[in-house]
Design a protein that fits this description.
The complex is a heterodimer of chains A (about 130) and B (about 300). With about 130 residues, chain A is of the alpha+beta class. Chain A is about 30% helix and about 30% strand. The termini of chain A are far apart. Classes of the chains: A alpha+beta (about 130), B alpha/beta (about 300).
């Protein structure tokens, strides 16, 4: 009986993340679920962020998705982005207007002006933290 | 009424200082004294591709392009009174173009197919530890996004990325033109708008590189500029000859321009202001021509 109580206590102290909750769907899957066309365009590496990105074509425009090991790591890279478009000491000339979003351990850069895509990204990730 | 368009142009000569504020943080190159120009090597690790003559674009971005159809953008970064730039040829082998290794105290310019990175050009700098003094810069042109010949667009990006390496930011990012390569204007292959630095950029560089602390700019600088780039105010027929846009109409077209002319004998800066009212573009209308103002 004591053993059962102990097991119950241990279970109740287990962090929520370790319990069997369904994992959050990936951003591309969420965009597909919203009815947007999403195509895999492969990985890229950017010298100004600390992790590689994966590029998806969302309704024909680039969406770069950066997944970090932790929220803190994502926040650290997000803090490099300035309102004037610089990322630390790098200044890209983007091929289309950039929009920067962050949700937990993920940063997404959308290059485009599609209002529907932007609305879905804002719904899923919150307001953009930088960009045009 | 045979006229299909109407335009009103007002020209004003006004002595006012130009506004300059498109800096990139507080980054700038150090100088050995308050009034001496900083000498910087610009090393080209560039190749000529099937659609872009990158070495030529770099050269003309630095030393100017007297043949630029956009007369307001014929100067190069070397026309800044606080920079003395020396273009040199580095290796154009793949390794150098791909990695664009930095050179202390210099700027390296490279081109390569860097992949679908989302950027057509990328400027990067590093600073001397603990300061905002730029230690080196690089400017990369991503050949992945240059698939057809478009000299104005190539020049625009090349000029802009090099301009970032002097510590300049963008003048705008909404696609509007301020007739400087530091804006985000998107050129067609025949439109040379925004393909070189303008006076606004030179003013900003001078400000950032703190030309003395209480010293005004020598008048001969402007006199020299006027000598090299004479302006016939009665023969400015194209919008890009009118200088830097400062106002836009509700349809996003530039409707006010300022052209820096130099300094008069009293030391006052002289500017030519042009304001234009555009006719609607569509059936039965054409783009206005400037000489219509005098009819």
């Amino acid at each position: 009986m004591r053993a059962l109580i102990l097991i119950a206590l241990i279970a109740s102290c287990t962090p929520a993340a370790q319990q069997s909750q369904p994992a959050r769907a990936s951003l591309p899957d969420e965009l597909r679920a919203a009815g947007l066309s999403v195509e895999d365009a492969g990985p890229i590496e950017q010298s100004f962020f600390s992790v590689p990105a994966h590029v998806y074509l969302v309704e024909g425009n680039d969406l770069q998705v950066y997944r970090y090991a932790s929220e803190q790591a994502a926040a650290t890279d997000a803090a490099k982005v300035t309102p004037n478009g610089a990322i630390g000491t790098s200044m890209p000339h983007w091929i289309a207007p950039p929009h920067f979003f962050r949700r937990a351990d993920t940063i997404a850069i959308y290059l485009g002006t599609n209002a529907r895509v932007l609305a879905e990204l804002e719904r899923l990730m919150g307001k953009q933290f930088a960009g045009q | 009424m045979h006229r299909r368009y109407f335009m009103l142009v007002v020209l004003l000569f006004v002595a006012v200082p130009l506004f300059a504020a498109h800096r990139w943080g507080s980054y700038h190159w150090s100088r050995s004294c308050g009034t001496c120009a900083r000498t910087i090597e610009v090393r080209r690790s560039l190749s000529v591709t099937s659609v872009a003559n990158w070495p030529d674009h770099a050269y003309k971005s630095i030393y100017g392009d007297p043949a630029n159809p956009n007369t307001a953008n014929r100067r190069g970064w070397n026309d800044s009174e606080v920079l003395t730039l020396n273009v040199t040829n580095g290796s154009s082998e793949t390794y150098y173009r791909q990695n664009c290794p930095a050179i202390s105290g210099a700027v390296r310019v490279c081109n390569y197919a860097y992949g679908s990175t989302g950027w057509a050009g990328l400027a990067q700098i590093n600073t001397v530890s603990g300061t905002s003094h730029i230690a080196w810069g690089t400017a990369k042109m991503n050949d992945t996004y240059y698939t057809t010949n478009n000299d104005p667009w190539e020049r625009h990006v090349m000029c802009q990325e090099i301009g970032h390496d002097w510590g300049l930011g963008h003048t705008s990012e909404n696609g509007s033109s301020q007739n400087t390569c530091m804006d985000y204007y998107r050129n067609s292959s025949t439109n040379w708008t925004s393909t070189g630095p303008n006076q606004h950029d030179f003013d900003q560089i001078r400000t950032q590189h703190h030309w003395g602390t209480s010293q005004s700019l020598p008048a001969q600088v402007f006199a020299s500029s006027l000598g090299n780039y004479p302006v016939d105010v009665n023969n400015l027929n194209k919008p890009w000859e009118w200088g830097t846009p400062i106002e836009w109409d509700p349809e996003g077209r530039a409707s006010g321009f300022v052209l820096h002319l130099g300094t008069d004998d009293h030391g006052n800066e002289q500017n030519l202001y042009t304001f234009v009212t555009w006719a609607p573009v569509g059936a039965g209308h054409e783009r206005p021509k400037r000489d219509a103002a005098f009819e």
